[in-house]
Amino acid sequence: MSSPEHVVVIGGGLAGAKTVEALRDQGFEGAVTLIAAESDLPYERPPLSKGFLAGSAPFEEAVVHPQEWYTEHSIHLRRGERVTAIDPGAHQVSVDDGSTIGYDKLVLATGSVPRTASLPWAAAHGVHQLRTRADAEQIRAEFGKGRRLVIIGGGWIGLEVAATARGAETAVSVIEPSELPLARAIGPEIAAVYAEVHRAHGVDLRTSTTAAEILTEDGRATGVKLTDGEVIDADAVVIGIGAVPVVDLAESAGLAVDNGVLVDAGLRTSDPDIYAVGDIANQQHPRLGRRVRVEHWATALNQPAVAVTNLLGGSAEYDELPYFFSDQYNLGMEFYGDISTAARVVIRGDLEAREFVAFWLDSDKHITAVMNVNVWDVIDAVKPLILAGRVVDPAKVADPDVDYASL
């Protein structure tokens, strides 16, 4: 296969920035264009619900590369522009300024957007969702002593916003329809730890209930009415009920789409000249033997190098298992693996002290996932056991005196 002359990347987040970085790192000397809808330099999003939201970390720390880097590496970075259409037949994209750009290879890194809530007055003033720098700045402006914040949704984003808001002495209520927050992500045993830590920090955590309506006065949110009729007063509301992949361009271009853009193990779409990475990539995973779409930082960080290897004529598969991390109050954690086939959880350490490692085991006693909470240097030690599919003794897994390597 002849080497492409021009690679176009759509999406100004971490995945897009790492794609153009990988092109130069892997020796591509042709033209590279990166089109970013936001006017900011491409940046990482985890700080938006952590340090940047708290005001303790400047935005510049989230930026992947400074402007000079793009200039030095001959990357044509088009900020504040949106691609309106892809024409696979003509190998070109249309931009909202009326221009068209030809490509030999195209990489989609369009990410995801917050899921919208079908609630009355969800668009009122004082109702927020978190995806961009501007969103984080607007939410931060709602924090403070004497202020009341209601968060609809007890997932990772909702709980991280809750923790950050409490750090600014904001009164916080969280509304979660499940019996426990995060239960679907990490199971009830570990989810209970998060419920306890938030309540211990003064969060009014309402579980097994849902929001029926956002109440307003003069067009601004004043509270949330629950389905049982109870009203929780608020000065602001944050809706965090998940995200949906941005696939409109891919779909209108005729690419195979189903809960994201369908890609193979090498991140190729149904069009051999178009690849997809990051939040939108619904990948046929070579290790798990099924499709997975992962909305986490590590995917955006690591998938691009594989896609670039393949679009330059190589042969590579993305076989990393999901990894993510979260910081809430004085509770830090890392997670690696997949719990979809897990039959039990084994704990090493002290749940009540919130210093432990959780291991998910399937029915055949293989470790499928690990999560370390306020205990560090665990993932690298346990990862080989997960990838090798070793059968382990649950009693030894739980024993802190047994070295990980000997499991």
UniProtKB/TrEMBL annotation:
GO cellular component: cytoplasm
Keywords on record: FAD, Flavoprotein, Oxidoreductase
GO molecular function annotations of the record: oxidoreductase activity, acting on NAD(P)H
Taxonomic lineage of the native organism: Bacteria, Bacillati, Actinomycetota, Actinomycetes, Propionibacteriales
Stated name of the protein: FAD-dependent oxidoreductase
Cofactor: FAD
Organism superkingdom: Bacteria
Origin species: Acidipropionibacterium jensenii
Pfam families in alphabetical order: Pyr_redox_2 (PF07992), Reductase_C (PF14759)
